Amino acid sequence: MLDVRNVSIRFGGVSALTDVSFYVNRNEIFSLIGPNGAGKTSMLNCISGRYKPQQGEILFKGEHLLPRSINDRAHLGIGRTFQNLAVFSHMSVIDNIMVGLHHKLKNNFLTGMFYWVGGAQKEEAEARLKVEDIIDFLEIQHVRNESAGSLSYGLRKRVELARAIAIGPELLLLDEPMAGMNLEEKEDMARYILELNEQFGITVVMIEHDMAVVVDISDRVAVLDFGEKIAEGRPEEVMADERVKTAYLGVEESAEAREDA
């Protein structure tokens, strides 16, 4: 579904990504891991359209993404959450989720002026039914009319995920979806991600620092370090890689590995 080929991006004299390649199969949960500053969020920004790499190409379902705008990528079926919460604090939970449906609404400002006769009323009603389904799925019925800014951190994370789901994505990019959560909240979020993948067929690319979660729910993992990919494969294979242990897991190289080097 996603094919990242030799992507490099620099900011001034700093290389955030250098010649990074990987692929993501349809219906996979694919995790990007690595130390802080390794380039993980920069990679999601390149896929979603916030950044444009200086080198390389990114294909989604065989179609080149780099010439496409962020809005175009949403239309193609790419949804996104952010490392730092990006909910509209003053808006209700329902209205936050409705924002995710905006690009799908056919009625514009002019047709909206004829709300009762132009189809906008029916379209809004259908959109709100979809929102209610998402609210039920993420178990946030009890806060549906609350302002997003008044919610706990964990619930705001769910609201942001709900808005990304409302886009109707085939590919969902999750940037540290469990950061700052307690154990119970992490378990709930992991369950939602698994259900989105298994029941709804949504392919997931996820940045996550909790290695227990990564190993439990990921089909494959790629590891970035200083903007370069140092490993890729099944979680158990990647976690056993000496370079990963040294760069990310904080384990010194074994004597055998040093001798081989």
TrEMBL record:
Keyword Kinase applies: no
GO cellular component, one term: plasma membrane
Keyword check for Transmembrane: no
Keywords in alphabetical order: ATP-binding, Nucleotide-binding, Transport
Residue stretches making up the ABC transporter domain: 2-251
UniProt cross-references to SMART domains, sorted A to Z: AAA
Coiled-coil regions listed in the entry: none
PROSITE patterns assigned: ABC_TRANSPORTER_2 (PS50893)
Leader peptide range in chain numbering: none
A Gene Ontology molecular function term of the record: ATP hydrolysis activity
PANTHER family the UniProt entry points to: ABC TRANSPORTER ATP-BINDING PROTEIN (PTHR45772:SF1), CONSERVED COMPONENT OF ABC TRANSPORTER FOR NATURAL AMINO ACIDS-RELATED (PTHR45772)
Protein name as it appears in the record: ATP-binding cassette domain-containing protein
